[in-house]
Amino acid sequence: MAMARSRTTNPRQKGPWKRFAALSWQQRTFYAAIIVIGAMVGVRAATLPMVTVANRSNPVLADRLGNGHQAALKLFMIEGAQDPEALRDPRAIKLGRARLSENPLDAPAMRIMAFHYSMTGEKQKAASLAALAEKITRRDKLAQLLLAQSAAEKGDGAAAMQHFDMALRTTERGREQIFALLAKNGDNPDVFAALLPLVDDKSAWMADYLLYSARTLPAGPQNAAKLLLAGNRDTKKEILQSVGTDLLTLLSIRGDYDLMLRLYSRMNAGAKSIADDPKITKQTIAASAGPLGWTAVNDVSVGGALGADKSGKLIASAYATRNAGGVALRRFLALPSGTYRLSERRRSLVESEGAKAYWTIKCPSLSGAPVIWTSFRNDVEYRVADAAGPTISANCPVQELELNLVGGSGMSGMEIVIETFDLAR
Question: Matching Gene3D superfamilies, A to Z (predicted)?
């Protein structure tokens, strides 16, 4: 009986804590991280800039911080930024109450008291004060973080994310800590579901978060792309255009070609796809096409360029220095399976003995990314129409097309202009 009473009187087994305990391990890990972010990072994010210019012995700054209890409270916040454990000091309550006696609507005073109660385990008092501070001003970032902490302790991920949203909209300061937390848990279905409603063009921070996630974690590009692919495209057109090209490149590097193609289609809904168009066109040389468009290598010894000649015709140029070799141009394609015919016209600007230029197609989705086609001609200058081209099999849904150069033995190396290029069934 004694044991039974002990269990039923344990506050962690009642109400919110019972719901928290019922969560999966992955959910509890995420929510526990929110609690840490809300309780510790918030103070540092809001007051750390003051730490670099202030201390207790700086009367000039103390005067700038305000008069009476306001100055004392702000200096205490600086102390808390340097050492969050200082927030356990009862001075937080004393200073907060004193400031509220001067101004009953002082949100920072309520906030510092809320952090004190959060640090000392009085969660209900902390949540109540944070909620009151939010009513006074929804732009109080620390109050929003405290409310996110309170929601996390109740296992309410959606509410926690709403408060994170408000905190992130308020200021860019301290974003990285929250971004790191969200990105680390990007595979968590609860995090995905809570983030999804916030992925729209009205968001002040979502584009930055998606790029942060994509650039810092192995699964970041996939998680970011899935958020952009889910739901209504019309609410995220600007975000798609803002981060889409970078995501296409990162997905190609990660080898997730299916997701790359799906994201490209979402970015260009209603437009003709360039994925099966090998020609040099305005669309296929646009920077927004990312790896699905023509990309010129920019290197000292081997490289290329894309643009218009003097007549306005779109062309590609490529060069290689003496004895140098490598890829000058490349792009990804999604040609349907079948046998293709090659048409190309290229001319030489500079040619050395032994110089070569030839095309290859790799199948990057197969083990080892094997070369499945090498062009039959490697002349620096030639014209060909309806010549034998590659055969694309069904198990190679995405192809990587590359122009390879060998500079030759002459001092000038080689330089060519590709006026037309096409592969057609």
Answer: Tetratricopeptide repeat domain
